[in-house]
Amino acid sequence: MASVTGLEGIVAAETGIGHVDGERGHLVYRGYWAKDLAMSRGFEETAHLLWYGRLPDDRELSALKERLAAKRVLPETLRRLLDALPPALPMMGVLQAATAALADGAEPAWPPRADQAERVAALVPSIVAYRHRRLGGLAPIEPDAALDHAANYLYMLTGRQPEPDHATALTAYLILGMEHGMNASTFAGRVALSTQAGLYPAVSAAIGTMGGPLHGGAPGEVIAMLEEIGTQERAEPWLRAVLERGGRLMGFGHRIYKTVDPRAEALRAVTRGLTGDDPAFALALHVEETATRLLAEYKPGRRLHTNVEFFAAAIMKAIALPTALFTPTFTAARVVGWTAHMLEQAGHNRIFRPQSAYVGAMPAEQPASIG
Question: Is the model's pLDDT at 7 over the cut of 80?
Answer without folding.
Answer: no
